[in-house]
């Protein structure tokens, strides 16, 4: 902030005397202007201390001269005596008193340049103090960023330093942390401004400033290559250059936290995916040890495996590709679409273990392992993102079987049976829970091996599944598969030949159904005509 006129006149070396406008001495002095013009106002900007020797002033034009200076908004008038006038003209003093314009007598021994130097030194000293305060504030913000709460500590410190409010928002515009009176309410009205700042579009502004009679707000995006969040700061006064510097420093610290935090989250998720593969391979102890290194662990007791698809959102992927985005997002902030949002919902389930994975067809999915009593809570968290399949209770050593059953339930949920489907709710599946998973898997593998290893282009397993699910009704099964019933009859004859069983035998059908029930359903393949019909 520039020095006041009171600070200038108090300099003993200048010997200045105040003759009028003493009550207005707290006006800021932004510069010193020397002029002998009768009307210097075209060359002034306001807040100057105007210095003159009164060469063109007399009793007739003194009042009009003062009126013009007041209208221009000058800080004050310095009149040099001992040259054109031995004393300041009485008419000028009277006009300054009436207008409330500070009038300062400059003695003959005080050069105007000395006053200019004094004001320049005061302005430089004030700017140095402001920069020093800004550097000190940046240091306190940096120390706040190093605290465990990181971004939240930065927001708290920023609001205190500026004497206003500050809000951290995620990429979707939701408030992640707010500090200062009225922060949350003000942030709720920033929707249109946030939309203008979102990344992935050329021409988006680097920041926005909003002003109203009682509030001034600055909003800036956070993120290096794409917008991952926003910082909004509000003050009851206009932002000074130093305040802008402090806000920019806080934004840089928050951007670092966003980018580095996102990379850390992405790395941990890759580890969890590897742990899931270990668990499904039966390497339970190796999986436990890896999780312990992350400070986590597997849930205890009987476990339930939940699975839900996590197909990428095309619009999000396109925006990410255009922005060259890498992994990472505002810690704790939902991405709003695609696998990220599904995984974050799963990770938020208390006491659970969540990981991203791909099924046998390469489709993205999220697997959630929770204590069996918490299966409903897990399903509620995932249900808003798509169908959910829940396997029956299993131990840590039986997670693969639990996942297979969850996939069977998911396949039923995906057909529109219900948004959330339990394996035990599938018709005829309750009996399978009584069969040892390893024995059932071995039986299924042996019985279906001829069909799995057959080189025909026709989908024999899928055709057999449809045939059995339709209770041997040719037309219904053929319609489900999208083939002619004669094609289906040919495939069932081939199945019977390959497995060496009579499909008209109810016992054979039951065995085949059990074998298919413990096998994860394959993704449907485009139907082609069989090699032989």
Structure explained in plain terms:
The structure is a single chain. The strands form 3 sheets. A 5-stranded mixed sheet has the order 1-5-4-3-2. With about 525 residues, the protein is α/β, with parallel strands linked by helices. The model is unreliable at about 315-335 (pLDDT under 50). It has 18 helices and 15 strands. It has helices at about 5-10, 60-70, 90-100, 110-145, 150-160, 185, 190-195, 240-280, 285-295, 315-325, 340-345, 375-385, 400-415, 435-450, 460-470, 475-480, 485-500, 505-515; strands spanning about 15-20, 30-35, 50, 75-80, 105, 165-170, 175-180, 210, 215-220, 230-235, 305-310, 355-360, 365-370, 390, 420.
Short summary:
The chain is α/β, with parallel strands linked by helices. It has helices at residues 5-9, 62-72, 90-99, 112-145, 151-162, 183-187, 191-197, 241-280, 284-293, 314-323, 338-347, 375-383, 399-414, 437-452, 460-469, 474-481, 485-499, 506-517; strands at 17-20, 31-34, 48-52, 76-80, 103-106, 165-170, 175-179, 208-212, 215-222, 229-235, 303-309, 353-358, 364-371, 388-390, 420-422.
